[in-house]
Specification:
The protein has 332 residues and is an alpha/beta fold. The chain has two domains: 166 residues, Quinone Oxidoreductase, Chain A, domain 1; 125 residues, Rossmann fold. 22% of the residues lie in helices and 28% in strands. It contains eight helices and 17 strands. Strands 3, 6, 7, 8, 9, 16 and 17 form a seven-stranded mixed sheet that branches. Strands 12-11-10-13-14-15 form a six-stranded parallel sheet, with helices on both faces. Helix 6 links the parallel strand 13 and strand 14. The longest helix is centred in the middle third of the chain and has 14 residues. About 2% of the residues have low confidence.
Length: 332
């Protein structure tokens, strides 16, 4: 892994590339000056997605999904070499006067500086610090999932999978009047984070049955089996996990049909159908950023590391690291 000298860090541009499945490196980049309608952003922080981004790092994107899974400012092609990521927070250094000096969120890979269209950056609302704003893409995914799920007042809601997205879904659902929300996870230490967010926690064996709505976000087929088991008669099980190349076997015999269960997917690439005629991606992102104003969400950012260590951090996360929720990367 190259060392970025401090005297170079402020003048040169560096980006993280997955050079081969399971191996990343920092590369120097050529940065052009912004043109009309563009901005130059200096990175402050970025976040690592423990779902899709680690699948990219491990080379697990199916060939059929190479085009659909491209990130907005991705460079290179799957499986590698590829520059990937979508949770960047930075400060506008050049561009329209209304944006210069302001902190913004952008769906950009991990890079120290970058030039993008001005309409690709989102101003951080007052009260949302840059270090917390790395959760914006995860929050946008959680918002879209709840639009897809359409919970009702008073519902019993089970969320299977206590990663960042699952915790955000549970936190949002718990703010609905009358809803009883339970987070289910096999990793017992996740109970402490759930408690900080005011969410009830249970292991799969102790989870409450007969949920009106079940959201699955564990990323593991076993979690989806648990989700189906917890669902009440004619309940919806919303599947948020993406399995890449893995085949998933489900118990769709047993009581699946007699309970008339609905199994539905949710994916953030499209605004949920019920909102699509009125909500743009930009409006949805503005909502996600506004929802990050609550300081309690800092509990989801469990780890931070300097940008120079990013290749090693990706390898560590891909190997496991069950206690890490959101991994934040800090820039010089």
């Amino acid at each position: 892994m190259p060392v970025i000298p401090s005297r170079v860090a402020s003048d040169a541009t560096w980006a993280c590339w997955t050079e081969a499945p399971g191996r990343a490196a920092l590369r120097a980049e050529t940065l052009r000056a912004p043109g009309p309608g563009e901005v130059m952003v200096r990175a402050l922080h970025s976040g690592i997605s423990r779902g899709t981004e680690l699948m990219v790092f491990r080379g697990e994107v199916p060939a059929t999904e190479f085009e659909r899974m491209r990130a907005p400012f991705q460079a290179g092609d799957f499986p590698a070499p590829v520059k990937y990521g979508y949770a960047g927070v930075g400060r506008v250094e050049q561009g329209p006067a209304a944006l210069v000096g302001h902190d913004v969120f952008c769906l950009h890979p991990h890079q120290t500086r970058y030039v993008v269209p001005a309409d690709a950056v989102h101003l951080l609302p007052a009260g949302v610090p840059p270090a917390r704003a790395v959760l914006a893409a995860n929050m946008e995914t959680a918002v879209n999932a709840l639009w897809d799920a359409a919970p009702r007042l008073g519902d019993r809601i089970a969320v299977v999978g206590g990663g960042v997205v699952g915790l955000l879904v549970a936190w949002l659902a718990g703010r609905m009047p009358g809803c009883a929300v339970e987070l289910i996870d096999t990793h017992a230490p996740r109970a402490a984070v759930a408690a900080q967010l005011g969410i009830a926690f249970a292991s799969p064996d102790a989870a409450t049955l007969d949920a009106d709505l079940v959201v699955h976000a564990s990323g593991h087929p076993e979690g989806l089996v648990t989700a189906l088991r917890l669902a009440a008669f004619e309940a919806t099980v919303l599947e948020m996990s993406w399995y890449g190349q893995r085949a998933v076997t489900l118990p769709l015999g047993e009581a699946f049909h007699s309970r008339r269960l609905v199994l539905r997917s949710s994916q953030v690439g499209h605004v949920a159908p019920a909102q699509r005629s009125r909500w743009t991606h930009r409006r949805r992102m503005a909502l996600a950023l506004a929802l990050l104003a609550d300081p309690v969400l800092d509990a989801l950012i469990t780890d931070s590391a300097p940008f120079a260590e990013l290749p090693a951090v990706l390898a560590r996360l891909a190997a496991g690291a069950p206690d890490t929720l959101c991994q934040r990367i800090d820039y010089p």
